């Protein structure tokens, strides 16, 4: 159960990240990034999601870029399909090269378990950095909806 929670959280964490496409303002770019990540997660595009994460990514749970890749591989293997509902709660841009985004993500997936369906909702706080005209996830905190972020 704990492993499944970690996999769900990681998938949602990555899914809530998105696009390096140049857009008007930094806030618009971060919003586009979230959408791109949502689409990539629903398509189970592991490599596309990993491209949105800095190789220097680190979080308070001890995850790094490689750990996230391994967790995504396992999660995508277990899920037959994934559907996400993403809501951006807040975006704070600091200068033109840093942002903090708070995102709520609801996720449903079909799998080969007895019930055949899993559903969860989480809130994420993402630390983003713009490097070489591309927004990358450098750190994050997350928790169950209504719970504490860790």
SSE map:
Elements: H1 2-15, H2 26-42, H3 46-50, H4 65-78, E1 79-94, E2 98-111, E3 117-131, E4 134-144
Antiparallel strand pairs: 1-2, 2-3, 3-4
Helix pairs in contact: 1-2, 1-4
Largest sheet: 4 strands, antiparallel
Q: How do the SSEs run, as a string of H and E?
A: HHHHEEEE
CATH architecture: Roll
The CATH topology annotation reads as Nuclear Transport Factor 2, Chain: A
| Number of domain modules | 1
| CATH class category label | Alpha Beta
Report strand order across the widest sheet.
1-2-3-4
Could you tell me how far the N terminus lies from the C terminus, measured between alpha carbons in angstroms? 18 Å
Helix segment tally: 4
Structure write-up:
- With 150 residues, this protein is α+β, with helices and mostly antiparallel strands.
- It has one domain: Nuclear Transport Factor 2, Chain: A, CATH 3.10.450.50.
- It has helices at residues 2-15, 26-42, 46-50, 65-78, and strands at residues 79-94, 98-111, 117-131, 134-144.
Keywords:
single chain; 150 residues; alpha+beta; Nuclear Transport Factor 2, Chain: A; four-stranded antiparallel beta sheet; 4 helices; 4 strands
Brief summary:
The chain is α+β, with helices and mostly antiparallel strands and 150 residues long.
């Amino acid at each position: 159960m704990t492993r499944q929670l970690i996999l769900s959280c990681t998938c949602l964490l990555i899914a809530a990240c998105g696009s390096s496409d140049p857009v008007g303002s930094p806030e618009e770019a971060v919003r586009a990034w979230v959408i791109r990540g949502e689409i990539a997660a629903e398509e189970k595009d592991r490599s596309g999601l990993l491209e949105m994460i800095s190789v220097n990514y680190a979080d308070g749970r001890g995850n790094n870029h490689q750990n996230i890749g391994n967790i995504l591989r396992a999660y995508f293997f277990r899920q037959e399909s994934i559907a996400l509902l993403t809501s951006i709660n807040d975006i704070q841009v600091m200068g033109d090269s840093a942002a903090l985004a708070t995102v709520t993500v609801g996720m449903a997936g079909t799998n080969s378990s007895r019930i055949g369906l899993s559903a969860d909702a989480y809130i994420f706080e993402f630390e983003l950095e713009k490097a070489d005209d591309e927004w990358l996830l450098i750190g994050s905190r997350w928790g169950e909806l209504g719970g504490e972020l860790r």
